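A note on notation is needed here, since sequence and fold are reported together in a single record. The reader may check this reading against the record printed directly beneath this paragraph.
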Amino acid sequence: MQFDLMASMMCADYGNLEREVKELDGGGIDSFHIDIMDGRYVPNFAMSLNDMRYIAKTTEKPLDVHLMIEHPNNRIHLFLDNLRKGDTVYIHPEAEYHPSTTLQSIINAGMVPGIAINPGTSVETVMEMLRIVKKVLVMSVNPGNAGQMYLPYVGKKITKLLAIKEDMEFEIYWDGACSADKILEYAPKGVAGFVLGTTLLFGKGKSYGETLNDIRELHF
Protein backbone atom coordinates (compact mmCIF):
# COMPACT_ATOMS: atom_id res chain seq x y z
CA MET A 1 0.00 0.00 0.00
CA GLN A 2 1.35 3.42 -0.98
CA PHE A 3 1.34 6.33 1.46
CA ASP A 4 3.79 9.14 2.20
CA LEU A 5 5.75 9.48 5.43
CA MET A 6 6.86 12.96 6.48
CA ALA A 7 9.33 13.72 9.27
CA SER A 8 8.19 16.35 11.78
CA MET A 9 11.46 18.24 12.04
CA MET A 10 10.52 20.15 15.18
CA CYS A 11 11.13 16.79 16.92
CA ALA A 12 14.67 16.38 15.50
CA ASP A 13 17.95 16.71 17.40
CA TYR A 14 19.01 20.29 16.68
CA GLY A 15 22.50 19.66 17.98
CA ASN A 16 23.00 17.40 14.97
CA LEU A 17 20.57 18.80 12.41
CA GLU A 18 22.65 18.01 9.33
CA ARG A 19 23.10 14.40 10.44
CA GLU A 20 19.38 14.12 11.22
CA VAL A 21 18.39 15.35 7.76
CA LYS A 22 20.85 13.09 5.97
CA GLU A 23 19.90 10.00 8.01
CA LEU A 24 16.20 10.59 7.41
CA ASP A 25 16.88 11.20 3.73
CA GLY A 26 18.94 8.04 3.39
CA GLY A 27 16.43 6.09 5.48
CA GLY A 28 13.69 6.71 2.96
CA ILE A 29 11.61 9.58 4.33
CA ASP A 30 9.33 11.03 1.65
CA SER A 31 9.41 14.65 2.76
CA PHE A 32 10.41 16.97 5.57
CA HIS A 33 7.62 18.64 7.55
CA ILE A 34 8.58 22.11 8.76
CA ASP A 35 6.45 23.63 11.54
CA ILE A 36 6.78 27.41 11.66
CA MET A 37 5.22 28.92 14.82
CA ASP A 38 5.12 32.60 15.72
CA GLY A 39 4.01 32.46 19.37
CA ARG A 40 0.81 34.30 18.43
CA TYR A 41 -1.37 32.02 16.33
CA VAL A 42 -0.23 29.15 18.56
CA PRO A 43 1.20 29.50 22.10
CA ASN A 44 4.65 28.30 21.14
CA PHE A 45 7.69 29.20 19.05
CA ALA A 46 9.08 26.42 16.89
CA MET A 47 11.10 26.36 13.70
CA SER A 48 12.39 29.43 11.91
CA LEU A 49 12.89 30.64 8.37
CA ASN A 50 16.59 29.83 8.73
CA ASP A 51 15.83 26.25 9.81
CA MET A 52 13.65 25.84 6.74
CA ARG A 53 16.30 27.35 4.47
CA TYR A 54 18.99 25.06 5.88
CA ILE A 55 16.94 21.89 5.45
CA ALA A 56 16.03 22.91 1.89
CA LYS A 57 19.75 23.17 1.08
CA THR A 58 20.61 19.85 2.76
CA THR A 59 18.13 17.59 0.96
CA GLU A 60 16.54 17.27 -2.45
CA LYS A 61 13.43 15.72 -0.91
CA PRO A 62 10.30 17.89 -0.87
CA LEU A 63 9.49 20.18 2.04
CA ASP A 64 6.04 20.49 3.62
CA VAL A 65 5.95 23.88 5.29
CA HIS A 66 3.19 24.30 7.87
CA LEU A 67 2.70 27.98 8.69
CA MET A 68 1.19 28.33 12.15
CA ILE A 69 1.45 32.11 12.03
CA GLU A 70 -0.95 35.04 12.05
CA HIS A 71 -1.65 36.73 8.70
CA PRO A 72 0.77 34.64 6.63
CA ASN A 73 0.12 36.76 3.55
CA ASN A 74 2.11 39.60 5.14
CA ARG A 75 5.30 37.50 5.03
CA ILE A 76 4.53 34.73 2.56
CA HIS A 77 7.25 35.89 0.14
CA LEU A 78 9.95 35.18 2.74
CA PHE A 79 9.01 31.52 2.64
CA LEU A 80 8.24 31.21 -1.07
CA ASP A 81 11.56 32.86 -2.01
CA ASN A 82 13.46 30.17 -0.10
CA LEU A 83 11.57 27.10 -1.30
CA ARG A 84 11.68 25.10 -4.51
CA LYS A 85 8.93 24.60 -7.02
CA GLY A 86 6.87 21.62 -5.94
CA ASP A 87 7.30 22.14 -2.20
CA THR A 88 4.07 22.36 -0.20
CA VAL A 89 2.92 25.32 1.90
CA TYR A 90 0.00 24.95 4.33
CA ILE A 91 -1.82 27.87 5.94
CA HIS A 92 -4.54 27.91 8.59
CA PRO A 93 -7.67 29.59 7.18
CA GLU A 94 -8.48 31.18 10.56
CA ALA A 95 -5.12 32.98 10.57
CA GLU A 96 -5.87 35.09 7.49
CA TYR A 97 -8.49 37.66 6.51
CA HIS A 98 -8.54 36.45 2.91
CA PRO A 99 -6.95 32.98 2.83
CA SER A 100 -7.70 32.47 -0.87
CA THR A 101 -5.36 35.39 -1.68
CA THR A 102 -2.53 33.72 0.22
CA LEU A 103 -3.24 30.39 -1.46
CA GLN A 104 -3.09 32.08 -4.86
CA SER A 105 0.35 33.49 -4.02
CA ILE A 106 1.51 29.95 -3.21
CA ILE A 107 0.12 28.69 -6.52
CA ASN A 108 1.69 31.55 -8.48
CA ALA A 109 5.09 30.68 -7.00
CA GLY A 110 4.86 27.11 -8.29
CA MET A 111 4.28 25.57 -4.87
CA VAL A 112 1.58 23.10 -3.82
CA PRO A 113 -1.19 24.95 -1.92
CA GLY A 114 -2.58 23.41 1.26
CA ILE A 115 -4.71 24.23 4.26
CA ALA A 116 -4.36 22.86 7.78
CA ILE A 117 -7.60 22.16 9.64
CA ASN A 118 -7.59 22.39 13.43
CA PRO A 119 -9.62 19.91 15.51
CA GLY A 120 -12.21 22.61 16.19
CA THR A 121 -12.51 23.71 12.54
CA SER A 122 -15.42 22.18 10.66
CA VAL A 123 -15.21 20.94 7.09
CA GLU A 124 -18.17 23.17 6.20
CA THR A 125 -16.27 26.37 7.04
CA VAL A 126 -13.45 25.58 4.58
CA MET A 127 -15.54 24.03 1.80
CA GLU A 128 -14.81 26.65 -0.86
CA MET A 129 -11.08 26.52 -0.17
CA LEU A 130 -11.15 22.78 -0.81
CA ARG A 131 -11.70 23.70 -4.48
CA ILE A 132 -8.41 25.61 -4.52
CA VAL A 133 -5.99 23.47 -2.54
CA LYS A 134 -4.26 20.23 -3.45
CA LYS A 135 -3.56 19.07 0.10
CA VAL A 136 -5.51 19.14 3.36
CA LEU A 137 -3.54 18.64 6.57
CA VAL A 138 -5.91 17.37 9.25
CA MET A 139 -4.72 18.18 12.75
CA SER A 140 -5.63 15.35 15.12
CA VAL A 141 -4.34 17.43 18.06
CA ASN A 142 -4.52 21.15 18.81
CA PRO A 143 -1.57 22.83 17.07
CA GLY A 144 1.44 24.17 18.91
CA ASN A 145 3.19 21.33 20.71
CA ALA A 146 4.50 17.84 20.03
CA GLY A 147 3.51 14.83 22.12
CA GLN A 148 -0.20 15.60 22.57
CA MET A 149 -3.05 13.09 22.82
CA TYR A 150 -5.20 12.21 19.81
CA LEU A 151 -8.67 13.80 19.77
CA PRO A 152 -11.08 11.00 18.72
CA TYR A 153 -13.74 13.22 17.13
CA VAL A 154 -11.27 14.15 14.37
CA GLY A 155 -11.93 10.74 12.79
CA LYS A 156 -15.43 11.82 11.79
CA LYS A 157 -13.98 14.88 10.06
CA ILE A 158 -11.60 12.69 8.06
CA THR A 159 -14.56 10.53 7.02
CA LYS A 160 -16.30 13.65 5.66
CA LEU A 161 -13.19 14.70 3.75
CA LEU A 162 -12.66 11.22 2.30
CA ALA A 163 -16.18 11.33 0.87
CA ILE A 164 -15.49 14.49 -1.16
CA LYS A 165 -11.77 14.40 -1.94
CA GLU A 166 -12.09 12.78 -5.37
CA ASP A 167 -14.71 15.24 -6.58
CA MET A 168 -12.82 18.26 -5.26
CA GLU A 169 -9.37 16.93 -6.22
CA PHE A 170 -7.37 17.17 -3.01
CA GLU A 171 -5.40 14.70 -0.89
CA ILE A 172 -5.65 14.23 2.87
CA TYR A 173 -2.68 14.14 5.25
CA TRP A 174 -2.59 13.33 8.98
CA ASP A 175 -0.69 15.47 11.50
CA GLY A 176 -0.43 14.82 15.23
CA ALA A 177 -0.21 11.78 17.54
CA CYS A 178 0.33 9.49 14.57
CA SER A 179 0.59 5.92 15.83
CA ALA A 180 0.75 2.65 13.92
CA ASP A 181 -2.92 1.91 14.55
CA LYS A 182 -3.90 5.23 12.91
CA ILE A 183 -1.90 4.38 9.78
CA LEU A 184 -3.40 0.89 9.72
CA GLU A 185 -6.90 2.33 9.93
CA TYR A 186 -6.69 5.39 7.69
CA ALA A 187 -4.19 4.55 4.94
CA PRO A 188 -6.54 1.90 3.45
CA LYS A 189 -9.38 4.43 3.59
CA GLY A 190 -7.47 6.90 1.43
CA VAL A 191 -5.36 9.15 3.66
CA ALA A 192 -2.34 9.90 1.47
CA GLY A 193 0.32 10.61 4.07
CA PHE A 194 1.25 10.89 7.73
CA VAL A 195 3.46 13.32 9.65
CA LEU A 196 5.67 11.33 12.02
CA GLY A 197 6.98 12.76 15.29
CA THR A 198 7.82 11.35 18.69
CA THR A 199 5.07 8.72 18.62
CA LEU A 200 6.59 6.64 15.82
CA LEU A 201 9.82 8.09 14.44
CA PHE A 202 12.07 10.08 16.77
CA GLY A 203 13.84 8.75 19.85
CA LYS A 204 13.21 5.06 19.15
CA GLY A 205 16.77 3.82 19.66
CA LYS A 206 17.25 2.48 16.14
CA SER A 207 18.08 3.93 12.75
CA TYR A 208 15.52 5.95 10.87
CA GLY A 209 15.82 3.52 7.99
CA GLU A 210 14.79 0.60 10.24
CA THR A 211 11.93 2.56 11.76
CA LEU A 212 10.58 3.72 8.40
CA ASN A 213 10.87 0.23 6.97
CA ASP A 214 8.92 -1.18 9.93
CA ILE A 215 6.15 1.37 9.31
CA ARG A 216 5.94 0.57 5.61
CA GLU A 217 5.71 -3.15 6.41
CA LEU A 218 2.73 -2.82 8.74
CA HIS A 219 0.29 -5.64 8.13
CA PHE A 220 -2.83 -4.20 6.54
